[in-house]
Amino acid sequence: MKILIMGLPGSGKTYLTKRLQPLLKAAWYNADKIREMANDWDFSKEGRKRQSLRMKTIADYEKSHKRFVLCDFICPTKETRKIFDADIVIWMDTLEESRFEDTNSIFEIPDKVDFHIKEWNDTNHTFISKEILKNV
Predict the structure, then answer these.
(1) Are 4 and 75 in contact (CB under 8 A)?
(2) What's the average model confidence in pLDDT over 32-44?
(3) Cα dihedral sign for 93, 12, 80, 65?
(4) Which of 60, 84, 111, 118 is deepest in the core (most CB within 10 A)?
């Protein structure tokens, strides 16, 4: 199962994923680490599509081996979210804007999410993991 934890930079994607990962016993891929491995720091429209495709390829591999996979990345547009094609979307909606104007200017509010997180707390990961596991 491919789970996308998306949101603006600084919204708490990694914070949540770090706590969710052991509860789901999931593989976890962080976008910054994947960009670092690819040595690709291009944040243009094409660079963001390329990153979404990279994350999709990794996540699809994990899913094909019947594993949960968590991918935390900005995934700022409808197009990048369509490319990634998540089974479950968790939107970290905790910021009105990030420190990066280029990201703020292209970020599109998602049409459909499975979990809409509006604040950081110490219970989101527990609630989300229970909901995911009861529907598996």
Answers:
(1) yes
(2) 93
(3) negative
(4) 84
